[in-house]
Amino acid sequence: MILIVGGTGALGSATAEKLLAQREAVRIMTRTPAKAEALQALGADVVQGDLRDQDSLVQACQGVDAVLASAHSIMGSGSEASKYIDDQGHRWLIDAAKAAGVHHFVYVSALGAAPDHPASFFRIKYKIEQYLRNSGLSCHILRPTAFMESHAYQLIGQPILETGKVTVFGKGENPRNFVAAADVAHFAVLMLLKPEASEDVLEIGGPENFTNMQVVGMYEELAGRKAKVSHVPLGMLRVMSPMTGPFNPGLSQVMAISIWHDTTDQTFDPSALLQRYPMTLTRLADWARNHIPADLLPAIRGV
Q: Which of 188, 157, 162 is nearest to 288 (CA)?
């Protein structure tokens, strides 16, 4: 049995679908079981659980051979703040997995995770990497670049398709890498089923690097219209990020990450990855064309 924590998210659900297609036993832990109905219909065991609830983690890990931890709360505030979900909750999950006799643990970190990262989310990711390594559990760590589903679509493409407007943090002229969740899921499955065949830490990215403004252009072409683009200057982000931290830590983190995205090298070369693990990585333009919600198609086509 493989437990996926964060199984209704982009990566978790893609991994679950691949595992179920291979007739693997999969358990999905989610706060809202109704969101996992499609996976349940495919054969997944769905349990209610919360990274803030230790007892639910203990129950979810019973009878489990491997765990994929793909949940996060980068935008969370209050009781859902990153410090409770990404830090405390994942330490509790690792402890519960060890106590239950789980054989292998795969943790989804992020490319750039480091103890001195300017954004606390990445510092927490690094902290959990170390906690997992020191736990005594057999483990692997995935470090993907920015997911197309969130960084390219939710933050840029969706507002353009829905409203014709988008807000870009910073200039948006710094090349960065976007990866499809389905491609990361390919490696998650490999680590879960054949841990001996993969490296302890695997950095994963897409085949191309684009600026945020180039992503804007892609979605303008799909929408068939120019978008009204508003920019939040870097200077304002540098002032607002620490100011918003006490009452909206999620927004504060996003601002800090946006500064990092806009001012440091965010490119990724997948050649070494593909040499070791040959596959066809998803191109961003292809992903964007294939993931336009059906309810937006009439408006985009002018029907």
A: 157
Tens-digit pLDDT profile for residues 55-67: 999 999 999 999 9
Q: What is the distance between the alpha carbons of residues 126 and 110, in angstroms, rounded to a whole number?
A: 9
Alpha carbon distance 193, 170 (integer Å): 41
3-state secondary structure of 115: coil
- What is the phi-psi region of residue 75: left when phi exceeds 0, alpha when psi lies from -120 to 50, beta otherwise? alpha
The DSSP bridge pattern shows strands 146-147 and 139-144 to be unpaired
| Gyration radius (Cα) of the chain, Å | 19
Backbone angles phi, psi at 286, to 5 degrees: -65, -45
Q: What is the DSSP letter of 283?
A: P
DSSP sequence for 233-279: -HHHHHHHHHHHTTT-HHHHHHHHHHHHHHHS-B---THHHHHHS--
How many whole angstroms from its chain centre is CA 182? 11
28 beta partners: 4, 46
Is a pLDDT exceeding 90 seen at residue 40?
yes
Strand partners, 202: 142
Q: What is the pTM of this model?
A: 0.92
- Reported confidence tier of residue 209, pLDDT bands at 50, 70, 90: very high
Residue 76: how many other CB atoms lie within 10 Å: 18
Query: How many other CB atoms are there within 10 angstroms of residue 260's CB atom?
Result: 17
**Roughly how many angstroms between the first and final C-alpha of the chain, as a whole number?**
47
In the three-class reduction of DSSP (H, G, I as helix; E, B as strand; rest coil), residue 229 is classed as strand
Q: What pLDDT score does 298 carry?
A: 52
Determine the Cα–Cα distance for residues 250 and 80; give it in Å rounded to an integer.
9
Residues 6+ apart with CB under 8 A from 169: 231, 232, 237, 254, 255, 258, 259, 261, 262
